[in-house]
DNA sequence: CGGCCAATAT
DNA sequence: CATATTGGCC
């Protein structure tokens, strides 16, 4: 074995220093590839003839970790011979000609991957995976230590999880940019996340198993791309999975600082692999991914504004590990974000019908949550699309690409609104969940008694601002209760108005 | 608890 | 430098 899992785990700055055998009769090509690899800190030995390469691999002292071999019409047989002889060396075949049968043959004969030329940096960057793959596979078989094989197993399972999830994402329209965060490695069978099990936190392995079986809906745990092999511990993984989507631990080389000395976080990161997470409870940072946010929104929708309080939302979301505080903050952030954009710079200004409370910032002392839905439930205020002429729609800005990821998948619309006005807005609504009876009644009561719980919602002036803001800045989250019109509806509306072409410019609404 | 917001992290 | 989150405080 060229390299064991243990070697890898102890490797400093992996994959730096990985030895690559490069065989390409085209010297120019070889040099280009070589220099690219070297930029990535691989150690490259280039060979321009097969014989040289063959003798090099027979010299065990060379200790290559991975090989990149060019194949072309004419030298195939020799290359296949190379594959034959280099059984222990993960070999990547590459060629100008992407003939499927040649590719297939290469793979069949043991090549770990076939890369089309030219070999971009992206393609080359992750060739280390083959080394890791091999090492871990072998490790699982050979290691005497039970733990080791378990680690390898877990690792493999994790790989499995990610694959599944990633595939899932690829088939999912709602896929968030998150999934692109990591540039997909060229190798399909092995994902980049080499994580390592932190023994000390290893509570049990069965939890891990459960995770594995978890539905593919989960967002995959963010992968740490660090200089060294960094690893997750089981708890973390379990935790992350149990959150179902999105709560990631900080990059795994961070210790969990005591809240008290939070400033220490960076220092802590100096102990990448061997952090002895004492309490085992590291602070995880909640990643409000689209999935998580969707849950959040659904919960808020279910509860209705009246009861959308953190604790209840938390309950409904049923996401392990999420704290009330997390939810509260999220709730508020959304709220504040809106307010900030809706009432920019009007610091001193109060709502028209200012009420008796003293704190200027409590515009909605009783209903501080998502303070804007009510107005939009009122037909008088904002009955149909298009909006009143005073706010010419800037349809060109409503395209899906300009929405934050969760917008496309999350309906900020309250149920009754969906029922009654979705059509008007041209937005067929897709219920992301079956139905919520309690909701209906909640909303119905809202509908029949518009002022039910919003006795003092802001005056029209403010509402106008809200609407205008929402229209002008489609990239901002919409207040609960507002939903963007579909591109189709906008375009058809435009054509009704005699505008048949949409300017390509995507801003331009001020 | 529920909220707000300054301090931090990203 | 702008946002996103957390930590604390009221």
TrEMBL record:
Residues 280-339 form the HTH myb-type domain. Residues 172-183, 257-273 have a biased composition (Basic and acidic residues). SUPFAM superfamilies: CheY-like (SSF52172), Homeodomain-like (SSF46689). Its main location: nucleus. Gene3D superfamilies: 3.40.50.2300, Homeodomain-like. One of its GO terms (molecular function) is DNA-binding transcription factor activity. GO terms for cellular component: nucleus. InterPro entries: CheY-like_superfamily, GLK1/2-like, Homeodomain-like_sf, Myb_dom, Myb_dom_plants, SANT/Myb, Sig_transdc_resp-reg_receiver. It holds the Pfam family Response_reg. Residues 19-132 form the Response regulatory domain. One of its GO terms (biological process) is phosphorelay signal transduction system. Residues 172-205, 243-284 are annotated as: Disordered. PROSITE patterns: HTH_MYB, RESPONSE_REGULATORY. Keywords: DNA-binding, Nucleus, Transcription, Transcription regulation, Two-component regulatory system. It is found in: Nucleus. Binds the target DNA as a monomer. This is Two-component response regulator-like APRR2. It comes from Lactuca sativa.
């Amino acid at each position: 074995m060229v390299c064991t899992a243990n070697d890898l785990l102890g490797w400093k700055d992996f994959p730096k220093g990985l030895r690559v055998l490069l065989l390409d009769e085209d010297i120019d090509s070889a040099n280009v590839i070589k220099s690219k690899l070297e930029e990535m800190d691989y150690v490259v030995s280039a060979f321009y003839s097969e014989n040289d390469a063959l003798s090099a691999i027979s010299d065990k002292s060379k200790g290559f970790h991975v090989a990149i071999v060019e194949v072309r019409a004419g030298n195939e047989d020799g290359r296949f011979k190379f594959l034959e002889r280099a059984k222990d060396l993960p070999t990547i075949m590459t060629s100008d000609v992407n003939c499927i049968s040649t590719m297939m043959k290469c793979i069949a004969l043991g090549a770990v991957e076939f890369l089309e030329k030219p070999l971009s940096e992206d393609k080359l960057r992750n060739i280390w995976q083959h080394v890791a793959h091999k090492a871990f596979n072998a490790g699982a078989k050979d290691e005497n230590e039970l733990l080791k094989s378990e680690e390898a197993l877990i690792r493999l399972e994790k790989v499995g999880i990610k694959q599944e999830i990633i595939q899932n994402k690829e088939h999912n329209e709602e896929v968030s940019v998150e999934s692109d965060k990591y540039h997909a490695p060229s190798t399909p069978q092995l994902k980049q996340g080499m994580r390592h099990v932190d023994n000390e936190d290893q509570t049990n392995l069965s939890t891990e198993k459960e995770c594995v079986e978890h539905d593919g809906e989960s967002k995959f745990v963010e992968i740490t791309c660090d200089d060294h092999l960094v690893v997750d511990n089981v708890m973390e993984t379990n935790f992350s999975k149990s959150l179902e989507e999105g709560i990631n631990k900080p990059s795994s080389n961070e210790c969990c600082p005591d809240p008290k000395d939070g400033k220490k976080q960076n220092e802590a990161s100096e102990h990448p692999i061997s952090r002895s997470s004492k309490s085992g409870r590291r602070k995880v940072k909640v990643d409000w991914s689209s999935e998580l946010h969707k849950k959040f929104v659904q919960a808020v929708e279910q509860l209705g504004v009246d009861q959308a309080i953190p604790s209840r939302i938390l309950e409904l979301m049923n996401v392990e590990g999420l704290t009330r505080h997390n939810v509260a903050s999220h709730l508020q952030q959304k709220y504040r974000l809106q307010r900030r954009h809706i009432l920019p710079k009007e610091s001193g200004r109060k709502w028209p019908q200012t009420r008796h409370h003293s704190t200027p910032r409590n515009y909605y002392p009783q209903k501080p949550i998502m303070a804007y839905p009510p107005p939009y439930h009122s037909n008088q205020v904002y009955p149909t699309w298009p909006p009143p002429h005073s706010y010419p729609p800037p349809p060109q800005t409503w395209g899906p690409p300009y929405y934050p990821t969760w917008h496309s998948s999350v309906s900020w619309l309250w149920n009754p609104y969906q029922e009654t006005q979705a059509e008007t807005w041209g937005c067929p609504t897709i219920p992301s969940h079956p139905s919520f009876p309690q909701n209906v009644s909640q909303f119905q009561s809202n509908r029949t008694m518009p002022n039910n719980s919003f006795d003092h919602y802001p005056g029209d002036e403010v509402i106008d601002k809200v609407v205008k803001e929402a229209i002008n800045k489609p990239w901002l989250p919409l207040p609960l209760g507002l939903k963007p019109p579909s591109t189709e509806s906008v375009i058809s509306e435009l054509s009704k108005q005699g505008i048949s072409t949409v300017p390509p410019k995507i801003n331009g609404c001020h």
